[in-house]
Specification:
It is a single chain. By secondary structure, this protein is α/β, with parallel strands linked by helices. The protein is about 30% helix and about 25% strand. The protein has a single domain, classed as 3-Layer(aba) Sandwich (Rossmann fold). The protein has an 8-stranded mixed sheet, with helices on both faces. The protein is globular.
């Protein structure tokens, strides 16, 4: 994996890249806790790269090696704009977004706001307050959740399954708040099949 530094207007975003930079982009976004960062998605990066994708997992501004934009929290439309700016910095017109928890919520908001830029979503236990957005997701979604998630209960998967028009759901008995990562061998294969459709 290679380090990448993506210049934005107000900061530089650090990430790791696996795969051919000219291949379709899978952009991975971590959760809110400060212990998160590009490494959140490390278990899935190489399998997806081998399958023919350019996988970039970033430290969002204010996490890891990416300086914050300012003293304000990175939320809502600002986080969405950062995702679009990262894509522009990577010179990619479209991307598949992969998001965990807070990053899953950011991925959903970006997909709804910019449907022409986002082709598919891969989500693990996404944190989303406004569930009214779910029916407006036009892209195919692969969602996973662990039954023992202590942060966002497994029951919260039900509104997603019911409301998202085009969704595939994978449940795991264990994995905590990191269903995709803790079940990476199995989930990577499912993600590759999903992306090939």
């Amino acid at each position: 994996m290679d380090n990448v530094f993506i210049k934005l207007e107000l900061t530089t975003v650090h990430g790791k890249l696996a795969g051919d930079p000219s291949a379709p982009l899978v952009l991975a976004i971590h959760g809110w806790s400060q212990r998160n960062g590009w490494h959140t998605w490390e278990p899935l990066m190489e399998p997806l790269a081998v399958a023919g994708y350019c996988v970039v997992s970033v430290d969002m501004p204010g996490w890891g090696d990416s300086p914050a934009l300012d003293n304000l929290p990175l939320g809502g439309s600002r986080a969405v704009q950062v995702v679009i700016d990262i894509m522009n910095g990577l010179q990619k017109s479209t991307a598949i977004l992969m998001g965990k928890s807070w990053g899953g919520g950011v991925a959903i908001k970006t997909a709804v706001a910019h449907p022409e830029r986002i082709s598919k979503l891969i989500l693990t236990a996404p944190a989303l307050r406004n569930l009214d957005q779910l029916p407006h997701i036009e892209q195919p979604v692969l969602l996973t959740w662990a039954e023992d998630d202590p942060v966002i209960p497994f029951a919260m998967s039900e509104p997603f399954i019911s409301a998202v028009p085009n969704i595939e759901f994978v449940a795991y008995p264990s994995g905590g708040h990191s269903a995709a990562q803790k079940n990476a061998v199995d989930f990577a294969a499912k993600a590759i099949d999903f992306l090939a459709k």
